[in-house]
Amino acid sequence: NFVYFLKGLSFIAERIKEKFECEDVLIIPGNSDRDETVKKQLGREAASYLRSCLKNGDVIAVTGGTTMAQVPKGMPNLTGYEDVVVVPARGGLGERVELQANTIAAELAGRLGAQYRLLYVPDNLGPEAMESIVNEPGIKEVIALIRRADIVVHGIGGAEEMARRRGLSESEIRRILENGAVAEAFGFYFDHEGRIVYSTTSAGLSVKDLKNIRKVIAIAGGSGKAPAIRAFLKYHRPTILITDEGAAKKLLEIE
Ligand code: F6P
To answer: Do the bridges between strand 151-154 and strand 157-158 make them parallel or antiparallel, or are there none, so unpaired?
Structure first.
């Protein structure tokens, strides 16, 4: 019955927590690879977790993607967070506008009654163009804010899917995969053991900044994403993982 089922999920959550030294693991029933409504639930769960650890005055950094897009949608309209600032974790990462971090930051701020600051820096600029853009006073200020984020909420994706979604060239995709990449987060690509094997140039938060952040909340589901989730959890500890049953069960099977 349902109570046993939920107990089963919390048992799985405990095992994942121990195995990957997570701060917290929350599992939604179902598999978002097969059922789109599960992704909505993930968004709702992430929104409620975020509320539970949010303090007025915090800076929240968010990434993009279809899963993250569900976080503002799962957040009720709130008050009392006027001094919270929501920012995108990085500049553009080649997503469609409704899936971009900037859009999600503005939507989330709207729900929280908070402020937001946006960052417009295209990906993969040459070093000189990048250098001059990030030194523009307005942009510099936003980047400084991003790097002192208190909470980050982010997606995790499969390496090949994300490289394609971002329109990387075939030769670049081949190089990334030859390097063993299985996961992507924040524009960084990770291999099975959680080692960074490739990164795209983009301004904002670097995965190396994560260790200074109070809460790192990863939201990703679907059994197909288990290898990618595993790689990220190997890279960063302690993560708060919000996932679904499909991914969670697979996560324990992979060695
Ligand atoms: O492009 C932003 C991003 O958060 C990536 O870093 C991540 O790999 C991806 O989106 C996840 O997207 P989705 O939730 O659509 O699978």
So the answer is: unpaired
